[in-house]
Amino acid sequence: MNSILQTILNEIIGFLSLGGIIEMFKTGDFSRLSTLSGLLGTLYTLIPALLVFEIVSALIMRRFSRSHYQIPFLVYVLNRFISVFVSFGMVGFCIGLFEKHAIFKSSVTWYWFIYGYIVWEFGHFIYHYLGHKVRLFWCLHSTHHTPQEMNLFVNHAHFFLEAPYADVIRTTVCILLGVSPTMLFLIMAIDGLWGSFIHIGDNIAKNARLGFLNKIILTPSHHRVHHAKNPLYMDTNFCNLLNIWDRVFKTYQDEMYDVKIEYGITREMKPNSLWDSYFGEFVCLFKDMAAAPGIKNKLLYVVMPPGWSHKGDHKTAKVTKEAYLQESRSHIAEGVGS
C-alpha cells in the first residue's frame, strides 16, 4: 500500500513539475536558479499551476464540465501507463546518427540561437503539416484535436507514438542544418514551455491575442484557431512560437471576431469515448482501406490527406475550405448586387 501511495505521490509531483523545487528547498541550494536550464525547469511549474487555477475558476464560475477534461486526462493516464513499457530515445538517436552529416557546426551564441529557433520551427512545421496532410500521421495526431473545448490539459492529449515521429523529424532537420545539440535542448525546453501555455483556456484568457504580441508570434489565439474545425480555420497555424513558416507557406490565419471557434474534429464522435479519441481515426482508415478496390487505392488512403476518396468525392480540408470561401464570396457579391 505504501509503495502504491508513493507511486501516486511521485506521479503528482512529476505532473506538477515540483521535483526540482522540492529538491531546492530540501537542500537549501538555490544555485540552479542562476542557470537558464534551472530557471526554465522552475518556470515549468507555472503551466500545471495555471491548469489548477483554470479548473478552480471554472468551478467558481459554474462553467466546469467534466467532459471538457475527461478525455485529455484519460489519454494522459494511458500514455503514462504505456511509457512504463515503451521508452524512446529518438532525440539522442537522431543526434548520434546525423550530427556527423551536418552541413556545418554552430556554436552557443545569441545569433546562432535565433538561427536555431528558426530551423526548429521549420522542423516543427514539417512534422505538424504532415500530421494534417498524411492520413496515417493524422491518425496519430487526431487524438490531440478531439477535445471539444480548449484547456491546458489538452496539451497532454497525444497518441503515444506521435512524439517519437515528431522528434525524429524535428531533431533530424535541426542537426543536419547545423544546430548544436546543446542549443537544440535549450530550444526544446523553451518551445515545450510555450507549447503548453498556448493551450490556455478562456477561463483565464478570454481574449488570447496577447495585445501587440499577436502580430509578432503565435499566441494562444492562433493555436485556438489551429484546433478549430471551422472550414475557414482548418489546417492553419502549424508553427509553435514563431509564425515565420506559416507566413511563408501561406497557412497563417488570425482569429476572426465574426467566426466563433468550434473545437474538435469534423467527423461525428462517440461522446466522452477514450477509445474513439485514441483509436477512432485508425478504425476509419482501416474501413476505408478495406472498402477500396486494388492495392494502389488502399495504399493511397494511407498517404493521401484525410478526407481523400478513391471515388473522387473528396472531403479534404482544402476542398472544404475552398467551398466555404466560394460560398462566402457569393454571399458578398449578392449583398453588393442588392
From TrEMBL:
Membrane topology designation: Multi-pass membrane protein
Keywords: Lipid metabolism, Membrane, Oxidoreductase, Transmembrane, Transmembrane helix
Signal peptide interval: none
Subcellular location: Endomembrane system
ATP-binding recorded as keyword: no
Limits of the Fatty acid hydroxylase domain: 114-251
Transmembrane segments: 7-25, 37-61, 73-98, 110-130
Domain of life: Bacteria
Gene Ontology MF terms in the entry: glyceryl-ether monooxygenase activity; iron ion binding
GO BP annotations, alphabetical order: lipid biosynthetic process; membrane lipid metabolic process
Keyword check for Transmembrane: yes
Protein name, entry field: Sterol desaturase family protein
